[in-house]
Amino acid sequence: MREDIAAARLRDPAARGDLEIALLYPGLHAIWAHRATHALWQRGWRFPARAISQVTRWLTGIEIHPGATIGRRFFIDHGMGVVVGETAEVGDDVMLYHGVTLGGRTRDAGKRHPTLEDGVLVGAGAKILGPITIGARSAVGANAVVTKDSPADSVLIGIPAKARPRRAGEDTRAILTAPEYYI
Predict the structure, then answer these.
(1) Contact assessment for residue 106 and residue 123, using Cβ atoms and an 8 Å cutoff
(2) Is 77 strand, coil or helix?
(3) Of 135, 126, 121, which is closest to residue 157 (Cα–Cα)?
(4) Torsion (CA) 13, 63, 176, 121 in degrees, nearest 10
């Protein structure tokens, strides 16, 4: 929990203190609840896992399926409307803004949700759909719709999203909030 609080403090310039973060950040509450539901899911206790997941969704506005695999220091800023599907895989040090969907495009069994490798940042309203991989340290712009794999150190913008290499020294936070990247 301390590591999660430290990650929130690092990524949110509005964070004023550990107590505020622990008590008032719904993204952290959703992640903490997910850890519990994922443990139940792994042990075959599927119904209780889904029930707790739904209560967490009602309380936070964030839906993380208990089957999703989430790495360390995952941070959801503002959170409302975030959806993480059952077969999604999220690496370490990933950050999502509000309205992000890690969703499927098929009803087939098996892997149907995306994989976000370590250090990926996803802007508000972005949709990443299907069993694709977003390479490490990539940034997905606000409202982008991503349906194809991208290599590491990419910037993905547009509908459908197109990937370009990240420029040396480029501030990824600016990509997530700059008006020229909005759709």
Answers:
(1) no
(2) strand
(3) 126
(4) 90
Tokens of 116: 């976000």
DSSP string, 87-104: T-EE-TT-EEETT-EEE-
Confidence at residue 179, expressed as pLDDT on a 0 to 100 scale: 45
Nearest to 147 by CA among 165, 136, 164, 159: 159
Percent of the chain past pLDDT 90, that is, above it, reads 73
d(CA 15, CA 27): 13
Spatial CB neighbours of 120, under 8 Å, sequence gap ≥ 6: 91, 94, 95, 134, 135, 136, 137, 138, 139, 140
Contacts of 168 (CB under 8 A, 6+ apart): none
d(CA 50, CA 95): 24
Question: In the numeric block, which tokens belong to residue 42?
Answer: 């792994």
Residue ranges of E strands in 39-175: 63-64, 69-70, 75-77, 83-84, 89-90, 95-97, 101-103, 115-116, 121-122, 127-129, 133-134, 139-140, 145-146, 154-157, 162-165
pTM comes to 0.88
- How many H helices and E strands in the chain? 5, 15
**Angstrom distance (rounded) from CA 49 to CA 68:** 12
Query: Distances in Å between the alpha carbon of 81 and those of 30, 51, 74, 148?
Result: 12, 18, 16, 23
